Every structure is written in C-alpha cells, then in structure tokens.
C-alpha cells in the first residue's frame, strides 16, 4: 500500500496578507461594476422667448431661453467645459444655444437655462415653411451638442469623457411648448 496516496496534501496556513489582497480585489471588482460610467441625460423642458427685435427693412433678432433637465446618473461628480448647441430646421443651421462650463454632483438632477439665438437670415429663408408649421402648430427641430469634461473621485482619479447628444424635438411654435422629443447620447471615454 502506498502511503503517499492516502495522505492529505500540504496544509495551507491562514495569511492576513492573502485575505487583505482578496478583499481588495473583491472591492475593486465591485467598484468597477458600480462605478462604470453611464451617459448623462438631457431633456428639453420648455422654451421661452427672451428677446424679439425687428429692425426694418429685414433685420430680426430672436432670442430664446431653453430650459433643460440634466441628469448625472454616475456615482462621481462631473465637470464639463463650455459647449455650443446647434439648432437645425429642415437640415439648415437655424441658431445656437450656449452651455456654460460647470459641474454637476454625483447622482443628481438640475435645471439648466441655456440662452439661444436664432439667425434672422435663416428664419427669412424658411419663412414660408415656418409659417405653415405655425398654422398647423407642429414644428420639428433637431439639436446637436458635444460636451467634453471629466469625472473625478476626490481629485485622485479622473477620467476624461466626451458625450455627443442628438435630439429630435417637436414643438408647438405658437405657444413654444415641447410636444415630443427623442434624445440619443453616445459617450466616449479617454484614457489618461
């Protein structure tokens, strides 16, 4: 009879070092799952007329304020740079809105008020279509913006990102009410 076949293998000793390494590995894996970056969301809540100036013979100055509900679903705060939102009508660049640089706390929502300016010349080029939309109280607009920033944890770890947001918005041009919208975002992370 072979005595080596029936004897148990070498006995492992308990090690605090191994336990700490195992716990740290488990915590890091859980943090990766919980902290994986998610796309922020932006929803246009309302549009209000802020300025309207007509200067004969054909100069029109039209300013709007866009109220946007912004959500940061991430467990870390984000800082972002200034951006310009392009507003399109029938594929033509109709105007812009300005998003100032800022910061949004982790897992939070806030209202942003974006000043917008519409191009009077482009409005004149599309006057017939815009008047027809106003008559049927149904106007379709597109908006596009790219927002760059970084997510940071206690200034020790930071991850740069860029979010591209494309929106298709249906508004009532008479009462400036948002009727429907479809927002799509795509996030890109950068290694630092």
TrEMBL record:
SUPFAM superfamilies found in the cross-reference section: LEA14-like (SSF117070)
Domain Water stress and hypersensitive response as annotated: residue spans: 47-170
Listed GO CC annotations: membrane
Pfam family, one: LEA_2
Compartments, as annotated in UniProt: Membrane
Glycosyltransferase among keywords: no
Any coiled-coil regions, as ranges: none
InterPro entries in UniProt: LEA_2 (IPR004864), NDR1-like (IPR044839), WHy-dom (IPR013990)
Keywords, ordered alphabetically: Membrane, Transmembrane, Transmembrane helix
GO BP of this protein: defense response to other organism; response to desiccation
Membrane topology: Single-pass membrane protein
Main location class: membrane
Tagged with keyword Membrane: yes
Domain of life (superkingdom): Eukaryota
Record-given protein name: Water stress and hypersensitive response domain-containing protein
